[in-house]
Amino acid sequence: MIEQHYLDDCVLQLRKLKAQADKAMAQVDDAQFFELLDADANSIAVIVKHVAGNMRSRWTDFLTSDGEKPDRHRDSEFEREAADTRGAIIGRWEAGWEVLFNTLMSLGPGDLGKTVPIRNEPHSVVQAINRQVSHYSAHVGQIVLLAKHFAGPNWTTLSIPKRGKG
Known about the structure:
single chain, Four Helix Bundle (Hemerythrin (Met), subunit A)
């Protein structure tokens, strides 16, 4: 069934995104994890914190409540707080992915035609999933770019190396 194939592929592609981000983050030290390119930039830590907050909000009670939970404080996701250690942020990241994967794997083909609200705007389940895959892809790209920048010559490629560099 194409509907189940779609759901399975979403899980597969999101697992690949997570693995890519995890491998990139493993190549930076704690200082680089929090480092800014400039005063208006986001660090890897802030991006990870934001994605984790988004995942918790969007995927908790996915079919039964608005994707923007009233207890989410989005603006604080873009600020470094005293309790924001690398370990704490990675813990939130892992918890966010767990909620996402548990929710996605609980969905069945019959759920794809349902409607879910995000910020009071109705989305089909397919639209809501695609919106999040796109969002997370963009942020994983940012994480990889920053990690590669900070790792410099110590960077280990996450995909097929350039010719002569394998």
